[in-house]
User: Fold SnoaL-like domain-containing protein from Streptomyces rubradiris.
Amino acid sequence: MPSHEDPYKAAHQLGTRFHAFLTAGDWDGIRSLLTDDATWTLPGDNAVSGTAVGADAVVERARKIASYGLDFRLLHILVSRENMALSLHNTARRGDVRLDEHLSTVCRLRDGRIASIETYLSDVPGMNAFFV
Assistant:
């Protein structure tokens, strides 16, 4: 395999591992994929919005999102020359409130680890109503 393909394969594997750890609730696994200064930014005005700064805060953000009982259905892992993104369809129900959103979680990589995450959502008002 030509060496220029290795970063793409590594980025894809990182995305696969991130999703697997998230769905399994393996918080130490997620932590192992992050740089110490990692950040995660989510849009909206709710309990999980804003920017989590530092690997421990990013893990806590993942834990909090998962605590709402989401089904994180992976649609695609997308790679660029230097980064990776997860295309997801997240669904959940909390009482009468239903979450049904498509999103892209864009991960900027540094030295084979996730240095920053930015999530783009299809339904920010729906996210605000769900994550109270």
About this structure: The first strand starts at residue 34 and ends at 42. The beta strands are 34-42, 50-53, 71-79, 83-94, 97-110, 113-121.
